[in-house]
């Protein structure tokens, strides 16, 4: 499938290249941004009728932006020069509508880019469009997007289109957000790499609020290296820079944490965790099963905090435009009204007290391994439900960075990811670990 | 100074009336919203050259909105029908620019109202304009606003214009936001009532982020009853509804908390606290001096958290438009880069652990009394510095509700407020206490 361009021949179609593969070609001018954009647009036009990953997609404006980037002299090209990025449609963009999959916001174009978009543009990224989301990023009823691996199954949510667009190779990079499991779960279902960084390491200004103490911006890509590109432009840094060079797994020590929701793990997830453990042990890593009783109350605390805070976020739209909200969103707002202030505070303070305890525990290990989802992506139901975030919500509450790694598949041939978790603000360390772990999972892909 | 209107004669000029006084007249149609708006516009046009409280003020659009409200049949009139509200210019409005006192955002008109604005409009409020702010709500260098009590002195910040516009009787109500002391301090300096509710009791969506875990929406008015109108439309509620009727001070028990920054109290503040205590004791209240050693580390923790989180909020504008940021904002972003992740987490977790401890302590008292500012509003300097938030930052960190009550004056004839503080989500209780305390402070006004 060699593909000719004006200046270069590629052994694979351009849309298949990761950001790390195509980035140097774009920066060096061996491939024009316009040419690259054309290849991706063709991919979207071919695939979008089946996938429906995009809430807003305008080839003309993409091409105009691409030509502008091509006009930049080499010394002004940023680290993401010409790389196409999809943005979940709850993220403000000044040149595209931001509709939150909600009629209240139809056709509304924000006055300013969210800061996270400003940083992408400053780095030279090509903003490719807005990806589909559940309503206001908080419904569990999906948009019309299908899983690229099987169009009868959900891609997950709420960052539905971001995961699907990356998995289906429309773009190499996409941005989403997670409150319970909205980054790691769709990454698991769609078989891509996902990072939920430490909470508030990336500004959430201009990103719709669901639960202010839980919402976290996250990234999707098809390689850990690509995620690292985003981590760098957003200035994610640990107190101690991880040493250069690859992390050797033979000296690594992992804890397997089944977490208090282990009873929800389906055979596919049990098998995935076993396979990942076996692969790591085969690579020389030490793995131990770790019971963490401090995690037991966290799932309920998470639900209480999320629901109570959703009331604050949704109250204005609920009051003024209730008929324009979907059933799930309405029910969230109603449920929030029935949580007492003392129950909310007990949950919030409980989580807050658990964070340093869990950090201290995690620090003893290279990383922990834990499920990314209850199993393979569920079959689409009438509500297009986006699956259970049970295995993710715990880590969202604790604000620790989580990477989903693909590579394993379930009995229906669907991807099943595994999560690596590190203490807060160990994002770069976690990416380094993820690079090594991804290598041992790779042979099992497909 | 009687004033004639088409339907009614008032003993005082309309602009002097509080929201609670003028509200029933507007709702009952004894005064048209247009007539009321005209009176306030005349007041602004008379005073604004001296005060400069407004970042955006357009009489034509105010009058158009007023006429629309007048067209509503009585049964569709909301609890704030026709009441004029000023909005700090870091709050998104879909029909007015939101400029954050920053050239980057000049003339930018957001696509949607912030939810807090939606709720005001749903309640029938007349959005009167945007009030001046320090840059991005985070600089300590003031906008060109003067203190209505003395134009050589600062009105405080960062909710500068909101405090000044209410104090100077341009509007009866205004909305601001506080990260360190940006509501309570200007309320103290300008001699108005201010409420910083419990953190996140009001949605901060569409309000510029400075420090995500500290920023709190707050209210300004000239009476506690007016503040209560806002508290009601925003759905502030305690778990236990305070009993009807006035709170008798004879059975009340107050704790006087000087706080760890007491050494910063100027004679005016020392005297104000003594005078308030004497007035409460004369009304039969029990007052005891309370030392709270748990508060000792909070001021430093607050600074660390605010500065570290400011880095996240400011990084995009700092990277892309540094030349458009003022010195203070630039220095905040740079300072944030030098705070280690572990120092930030220690401060954040320290505050989080202190919150339930302090709540439990506060619950033993009717309320605590503590200073609202280091003293009277300082004289304006070359940077138009907005004064010290030292006495407020502690309570911002702890997320507890705080009311500033005016009524006392310092040696230069300037207002000096006192703060009442209650545990988290005891906002309605606090307002009830504030009503009674305001009565005993009133005779000393002026």
UniProtKB/TrEMBL annotation, chains A, B:
<dbReference type="GO" id="GO:0003824">
    <property type="term" value="F:catalytic activity"/>
</dbReference>
<dbReference type="Pfam" id="PF01425">
    <property type="entry name" value="Amidase"/>
</dbReference>
<dbReference type="InterPro" id="IPR036928">
    <property type="entry name" value="AS_sf"/>
</dbReference>
<feature type="region of interest" description="Disordered">
    <location>
        <begin position="135"/>
        <end position="163"/>
    </location>
</feature>
<dbReference type="InterPro" id="IPR000120">
    <property type="entry name" value="Amidase"/>
</dbReference>
<dbReference type="InterPro" id="IPR023631">
    <property type="entry name" value="Amidase_dom"/>
</dbReference>
<feature type="compositionally biased region" description="Polar residues">
    <location>
        <begin position="135"/>
        <end position="155"/>
    </location>
</feature>
<protein>
    <recommendedName>
        <fullName>Amidase domain-containing protein</fullName>
    </recommendedName>
</protein>
<feature type="domain" description="Amidase">
    <location>
        <begin position="39"/>
        <end position="431"/>
    </location>
</feature>
């Amino acid at each position: 499938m060699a593909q000719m361009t004006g200046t270069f021949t590629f052994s694979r179609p351009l849309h298949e290249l990761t950001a790390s593969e195509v980035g140097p070609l774009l920066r060096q001018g061996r491939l024009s941004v316009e040419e690259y954009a054309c290849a991706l647009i063709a991919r979207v036009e071919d695939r979008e009728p089946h996938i429906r990953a995009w809430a807003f997609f305008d080839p003309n404006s993409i091409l105009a932006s691409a030509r502008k980037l091509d006009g930049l002299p080499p010394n002004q090209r940023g680290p993401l020069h010409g790389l196409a990025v999809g943005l979940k449609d709850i993220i403000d963009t000044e040149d595209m509508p931001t509709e939150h999959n909600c009629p209240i916001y139809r056709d509304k174009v924000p006055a300013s880019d969210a800061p996270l978009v400003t940083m992408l543009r400053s780095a030279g990224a090509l903003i490719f469009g807005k990806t589909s989301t559940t309503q206001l990023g908080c419904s569990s009823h999906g948009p019309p997007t299908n899983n690229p691996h099987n169009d009868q199954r959900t891609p997950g949510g709420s960052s539905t289109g971001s995961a699907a667009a990356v998995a289906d190779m429309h773009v190499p990079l996409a941005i989403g957000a997670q409150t319970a499991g909205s980054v790691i779960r769709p990454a698991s279902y769609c078989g891509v790499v996902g990072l939920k960084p430490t909470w508030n390491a990336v500004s959430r200004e201009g990103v719709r609020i669901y639960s202010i103490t839980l919402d976290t911006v996250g990234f999707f890509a098809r390689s850990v290296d690509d995620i690292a590109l985003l981590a760098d432009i957003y200035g994610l840094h640990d107190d101690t820079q991880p040493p250069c060079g690859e992390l050797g797994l033979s000296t690594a020590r992992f804890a397997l944490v089944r977490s208090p929701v282990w009873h929800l793990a389906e055979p596919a997830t049990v098998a995935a965790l076993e396979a990942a453990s076996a692969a790591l042990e085969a690579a020389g890593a030490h793995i131990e099963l770790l019971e963490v009783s401090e995690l037991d109350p966290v799932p309920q605390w998470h639900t209480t905090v999320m629901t109570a805070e959703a009331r604050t976020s949704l109250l204005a739209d609920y009051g003024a435009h209730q008929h324009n909200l979907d059933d799930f969103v309405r029910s969230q707002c109603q449920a929030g009204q029935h949580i007492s202030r003392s129950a909310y505070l007990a949950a919030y303070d409980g989580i807050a007290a658990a964070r340093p305890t869990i950090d201290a525990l995690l620090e003893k290990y290279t990383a922990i391994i834990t499920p990314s989802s209850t199993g393979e992506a569920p079959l689409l139901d009438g509500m297009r439900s986006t699956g259970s975030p049970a295995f993710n919500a715990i880590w969202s509450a604790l604000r620790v960075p989580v990477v989903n790694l693909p590579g394993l598949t379930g009995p229906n041939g669907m991807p099943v990811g595994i999560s690596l978790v590190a203490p807060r603000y160990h994002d770069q360390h976690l990416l380094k670990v993820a690079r090594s772990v991804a290598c041992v999972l790779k042979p099992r892909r497909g």
